[in-house]
TrEMBL record, chain A:
<feature type="transmembrane region" description="Helical">
    <location>
        <begin position="209"/>
        <end position="227"/>
    </location>
</feature>
<protein>
    <submittedName>
        <fullName>ABC transporter</fullName>
    </submittedName>
</protein>
<dbReference type="InterPro" id="IPR001626">
    <property type="entry name" value="ABC_TroCD"/>
</dbReference>
<feature type="transmembrane region" description="Helical">
    <location>
        <begin position="147"/>
        <end position="171"/>
    </location>
</feature>
<feature type="region of interest" description="Disordered">
    <location>
        <begin position="283"/>
        <end position="307"/>
    </location>
</feature>
<dbReference type="GO" id="GO:0043190">
    <property type="term" value="C:ATP-binding cassette (ABC) transporter complex"/>
</dbReference>
<feature type="transmembrane region" description="Helical">
    <location>
        <begin position="75"/>
        <end position="94"/>
    </location>
</feature>
<keyword id="KW-0812">Transmembrane</keyword>
<feature type="transmembrane region" description="Helical">
    <location>
        <begin position="44"/>
        <end position="63"/>
    </location>
</feature>
TrEMBL record, chain B:
<dbReference type="Pfam" id="PF00005">
    <property type="entry name" value="ABC_tran"/>
</dbReference>
<keyword id="KW-0813">Transport</keyword>
<dbReference type="InterPro" id="IPR017871">
    <property type="entry name" value="ABC_transporter-like_CS"/>
</dbReference>
<protein>
    <submittedName>
        <fullName>ABC transporter ATP-binding protein</fullName>
    </submittedName>
</protein>
<dbReference type="InterPro" id="IPR050153">
    <property type="entry name" value="Metal_Ion_Import_ABC"/>
</dbReference>
<comment type="similarity">
    <text>Belongs to the ABC transporter superfamily.</text>
</comment>
<keyword id="KW-0547">Nucleotide-binding</keyword>
<feature type="region of interest" description="Disordered">
    <location>
        <begin position="216"/>
        <end position="239"/>
    </location>
</feature>
<dbReference type="InterPro" id="IPR003593">
    <property type="entry name" value="AAA+_ATPase"/>
</dbReference>
């Protein structure tokens, strides 16, 4: 079979079709919110939310069991959405009140989320094996309903992240100045937290909670290497995200590997490539261009030979 | 004359300590007020409290007659924070940073012609040619001027500046004084935090001095303390009244020149 036949075969597979749509949407949306998180130096926030989402998965499982729903995990994703939103808003409120440093608050969330998830799933009659699908992603099992949920959530993330980009840029670039401009900083911060939580739960299906943050952050890290404006950074990050998720997932159609891990490794490979190619793709090579502004010296220095 | 800034009995606590004790200040339209005081006297906190960047525990602030909050005409107010760097975690060009100054309480999306206005504001501080460069690639002094442009882009009637010339070399200080003189001549009200008057001496007619969070002087610029009045004493902000004096009468069209 030729390469074309192989690709047509992959695109004809209904499992693969659904998975590719979900992966592309997540690859497009996750870096948008990731750009704001990197800008405000909260790169690890997505990880914290992901860990809390795991507790939400277990809680959804517990409730689903109690209500004798089939399948048992029918409420797992809704549970994750609720827990992630609550967790993200909590982090944001702790950060705003400044009682605990954001760093420590994140750490507490990491441990609480994982421990809570494992504890609750065992109470719900599940095993740790049931959690593995959420820890490492389970994109091959997405249903048509999952696709629609992803379309709606990704649309929301893109709508907020792109529609309000100037305002979100302002509060992420300099929160104090935004406050001094009368911008609704608190409301916009909470909005970023909620949208980040939604992004995490969407991305959870693709790469799993342990790697969820990578989809938000690594494409931005790639874009930072080649862009000098915020606009370009976000655009390149979105393109990188889509290429990584679609190419990574397609690879696993032919080679038996974990889709989530393949996607993240691919994104990291793109980072390495961009870093290596950086000297050649920079728009303004600093060859003859003198980066120092031409100003008079503040001090008088005797130059050799002048005296 | 209308009152532009009015602070009454302002008390600010930060980290459990009271930084400002019942500070009073009234600034009229068109005034240029210097806020002086030693390091840690509370002058930066005072300016930040005036624009609502830090919460106050007692007292009130009115800007253009409106209590701090959503109803303040924020588009008439330009604030320049004391900052070492204008850069954040993601690259941004000077024009993008300045454009964020066009947003305020009632405007979350930039207006038409935002790009042109940003480049104009950058031209006022002499940085039009670096509009599309990443701010993190600019020098510290240039980054500070980007922040000044971000405050100027909305064409404010009230300008609040927190140590705008700290760590900036003498020619840039004089250029800044000339640009500020143009704005003052056009009727802009200015409240500026300073260590010493320096190049701004001819502009500042009224000084408020803070010590330990209280106003200890409000009136004509005070004489420098002994040891700081010798023209040869070592400090980072050189006085050069002669140069700045002739800039006093320049029109608003003045440009930052190097």
């Amino acid at each position: 079979m030729s390469v074309v036949d192989e690709v047509v075969g992959m695109l004809g597979d209904p499992f693969m079709q659904r998975a590719l749509v979900v992966a592309a949407l997540v690859g497009l949306a996750a870096p948008v919110i990731g750009t704001y998180l990197v800008q405000r130096r909260l790169s690890l926030l997505g990880d914290g939310i992901g860990h809390v989402a795991l507790t939400g998965v277990a809680l959804g499982w517990l409730v689903g069991n109690a209500m004798e729903l089939t399948p048992h995990d029918a409420l797992a994703v809704p549970g994750a959405v609720v827990a992630a939103v609550v967790g993200a808003v909590t982090i944001e409120l702790v950060r705003q009140h400044g009682r605990t440093s954001g760093d420590v608050a994140l750490a507490l969330l990491f441990y609480g989320g994982i421990a809570g998830g494992v504890l609750i799933i065992s109470q719900a009659g599940g095993t740790n094996a049931n959690l593995v699908g959420y820890l490492f992603g389970s994109i091959s099992t997405v249903s048509t309903g999952d696709v629609w949920l992803t379309v709606v959530l990704a649309g929301l993330v893109l709508g907020v992240g792109l529609g309000l980009r100037s305002a979100l840029f302002a509060i992420s670039q300099d929160e104090e100045f935004a406050r001094a401009s009368g911008l609704p900083v608190r409301a916009l911060n909470l909005l970023v937290a909620v949208v980040a939580a939604l992004t995490v739960t969407v991305a959870m299906r693709v790469v799993g909670v342990l790697l969820v943050s990578a989809l938000m952050i690594v494409p931005v890290a790639v874009a930072q290497l080649v862009a000098s404006s915020f606009r370009r950074t976000m655009g390149v990050a979105m393109a990188t995200g889509v290429v990584a998720t679609v190419a990574g997932l397609s690879t696993t159609y032919w080679y038996d590997a974990s889709p989530g891990a393949t996607i993240v490794v691919l994104a990291l490979a793109m980072y390495a490539l961009a870093a290596a190619a950086r000297p050649f793709v920079r728009r303004r090579p600093s060859g003859p261009h003198d980066p120092h502004p031409q100003l008079d010296d503040d001090v008088q220095v005797a130059t050799p030979g002048s005296r | 004359m209308t009152e532009v800034v009015r602070a009454q009995g302002l008390r600010v606590d930060l980290g459990g300590a009271t930084i400002l004790h019942g500070v009073e200040l009234a600034v009229d339209d068109g005034e240029v007020v210097g806020l002086l005081g030693a390091n840690g006297s509370g002058k930066s906190t005072f300016v930040r409290a005036l624009v609502g960047a830090v919460p106050s525990q007692a007292g009130s602030v009115r800007l253009f007659g409106t209590p701090l909050g959503r109803d303040v005409p924020w588009h008439r107010i330009g604030y320049v924070p004391q900052r070492v760097s204008a850069a954040a975690g993601v690259p941004a060009t000077a024009a993008e940073v300045v454009t964020s100054g066009l947003l305020h309480g009632r405007r979350l999306v930039p207006p038409r012609g935002a790009r042109r206005r940003s480049v104009e504001a950058l031209a006022v501080v002499g940085l039009a040619d670096v509009a599309d460069r990443a701010v993190r690639e600019l020098s510290g002094g240039q980054q500070q001027r980007v922040l000044i442009a971000r405050a100027l882009v909305r064409r404010p009637d009230l300008l609040l500046l927190d140590e705008p010339v700290a760590g900036v070399d003498l020619p840039s200080q004089e250029a800044f004084a000339r640009a500020l003189a143009g704005l003052v001549a056009a009727g802009t009200t200015v409240v500026v935090v300073l260590h010493e008057l320096g190049a701004l001496q001819p502009l500042v007619r009224r000084c408020v001095v803070l010590r330990h969070g209280r106003v200890i002087h409000d009136g004509a610029p005070p004489r420098p303390s002994p040891g700081h009045d010798d023209p040869h004493h070592e400090h980072v902000h050189p006085h050069d009244a002669a140069l700045a004096d002739e800039a006093g009468g320049l029109v608003p069209a003045v440009r930052w020149q190097e």
